[in-house]
Structure formats: structure tokens, C-alpha cells
Amino acid sequence: MLKLEQAEEIQLPVRDGTLLSGHLFKPEGSKKCPLIVFVTGSGSLSYKMDWQNDSFYFCRTFVSVCLAEGFAVLLVNKRGVGDSKGNWKSQSFYGRADDMYDVIQLMKIRPEIIEHHISVAGHSQGGWIVQLLASMYPNDIKSALSIAGPAYSVRKQMVDNMESELIMRGFRRSVKWLLFLYSTSLTLYQYISTFVKTGYISYILSYDARDVIQAIKVPTYFAFAENDHLVPLEKNEPLARELLKDVNIPWEIRVTKGVNHSYASSAKYQTWDEIESKASPGLADLLSDFCKWTRKHTY
User: Where would I find the Serine aminopeptidase S33 domain in this sequence (predicted)?
Assistant: First the structure.
């Protein structure tokens, strides 16, 4: 089993001097290799949880597959998570993208990294950040992988998330009017947020990926999960295809069957208490395919 101690622990100073913590994994026997920088999702859990609790698996799986494909992998904690300094709760998506851009610049000068072969990958909210990076930095990023990253706005994703939560809690009959109340409260909150920031959501609520996906400038691979109740497939996959139809760089959309938002085997609306918390074979297949796809379209 892959151990965290196999990686090099590094500190990454970004433009304002804030230090982000990370672990760099390198494939055995490679003097210089391509790199994938992994962008974590929402919340305050560190990627280190994958090595502290067996029910966490996403980052471990990601690293293991990419190493086997000959890629180095950098895991980075966002501001205020793990050993990283700063505070992610007062940061917009553009701020997170700026941090990751600075990290990429630091990795370019590493002697074991091929400086013009750096890709980015992110899961969930990290998918939003990856899409943003792919639209902003075509000269710095070789390819991008958005895993369960929404194709629409933060507001729409929050409403869809609430709908799923209500259904899973047994309020199916009340969903329509409860969603109306929730949507109305978000409208008010978003209006207030234009004048004063009152909590983390106020920094990101106006973000809309639809404007970003149409502007991507590097080869980008979009992965969706069939039974994702946080980023519903039926709303995001067709939208992503529509947004990408006039994009002239290589892109790919892949749907993994029978998995939830975190790529564990699951039916739609099943809770973690009802399923086994481990990576489905589809996650490894997806990651391996992305590595091969990156080589095909960028080398």
C-alpha cells in the first residue's frame, strides 16, 4: 500500500507569502517526469485523511494510478487546511486559482519535473478550479481533469444539492416549495453579499462555470458520475457538451456508471451508511485513461 512517507513533504510560498503544505510523489526510476497537481475540493479535510482513515480513498487512488502511469503527483492543502497557513474561508475561486498557478510556477523549477508537462486535476469544487485554470493559463498547463466538477453556477449546484438532501431525508413531497424558500433565501443572501461579505459562500455564490468552460484553452477532460446526487449527471453532462461544442482544443467527456460523487459504487441517493466506502474500479479506469489521453493529445 502506498505510504505518505514515500513522498517528499514540501512548503510552497504563494504570492502573498502564505505557505501551503504539500506532498510530492515521484514514480520510481524516473529522472525527469511529467507532473499532475491535484486540487482538492470543498471543506476543511486534508488529503492526509487518506492515510489516517481507511474510509478515505480518493487521493490515495489518484496518486497510485498516476504514479503507475509514469506521472509525478503533487497533493496540496489549500489555505488553512492541514499544515497550510492562511484562511480559505475568505477566498474566492479566483484566489484559489491564483494559489495553484503560483504552485505550478514553483514546480516548474524542480529538477525532476518536465517544466512544460504539468497538468492539473481536481475533484468536486476542485473541478471548478481546474476549469478556471484551463481557461486562464494555456502556456503553463498541459492538460486538465475535472472530476465531478459542475458545469454551471455555484448557486445552481447548491439548489440541486439541497434537492437531493431533501429527497434523501424523506421530504420528496415537500421538495418543490422547500426549494422555492431556499432559492429565495439565496437570492437575498447574494444581494447582501454584493455590499458585505458574510461568510464563505458570499465569496463564491456569484461564480458561474458556464462562462469559464466555453473559454478553456488547454486540453480538458470532464468526468461525471452516473449516480452523483451533488452534481447531477442529467443536468451537467449535456450542459458541458453544449458549452464545449465550439471549443477548438481537444476535450473529452466520460461518464462512469454506477458510482456516486466520490466514485464509490452506489445507487442514486444512497447514503454512506448504505454503501462501502472504497474506490470503485471505475475511478482507477478513469484516472488511467486521463493519463493516456494526456499523452495522446499533448506530447
Answer: 68-238
Instruction: Retrieve residue 271's grid coordinates.
Output: 447514503
Angle, alpha carbons 174-180-181 (nearest 5°): 90
- pLDDT (average), residues 93-117: 96
Residue 211 DSSP SS3: helix
pLDDT at residue 54 is higher than 80 = yes
State the DSSP code for 170. Answer: T
Question: What gap in Å lies between CA 122 and CA 131, rounded to an integer?
Answer: 9
Set of cell numbers at residue 169: 431525508
Q: Could you tell me how far CA 120 lies from the centroid of its own chain?
A: 9
pLDDT of residue 219: 97
Q: Could you read off the pLDDT of 287-296 as tens digits, one per residue?
A: 999 999 999 9
* Distance, CA of 127 to CA of 139 (rounded, Å): 19
Cell of 30: 524516473
List the grid coordinates of 265: 459504487
Three-state SS sequence of 15-55: CCCCEEEEEEECCCCCCCEEEEEEECCCCCCCHHHHHCCCC
Is residue 92 within 8 Å of 198, Cβ to Cβ? Answer: no
DSSP designation for 274: G
Fill in the amino acid letter for 24: L
Report how far apart, in Å, the C-alpha atoms of 96 and of each of 127, 155, 247 are.
12, 18, 24
Number of Cβ atoms within 10 Å of the Cβ of 89: 12
Strand order in the sheet with 19-25: 8-13, 19-25, 72-76, 33-39, 113-123, 144-147, 220-225, 251-256
Helix (H), strand (E) counts: the chain:
9, 8
Domain 4-153+209-298: homologous superfamily in CATH: Alpha/Beta hydrolase fold, catalytic domain (3.40.50.1820)
Domain boundaries, the chain: 4-153+209-298, 154-206
Cell (9 digits) for 116: 512544460
Question: CA 123, CA 271: separation in Å to the nearest integer?
Answer: 19
> Which helix (DSSP H) or strand (DSSP E) does residue 295 occupy?
helix 281-298
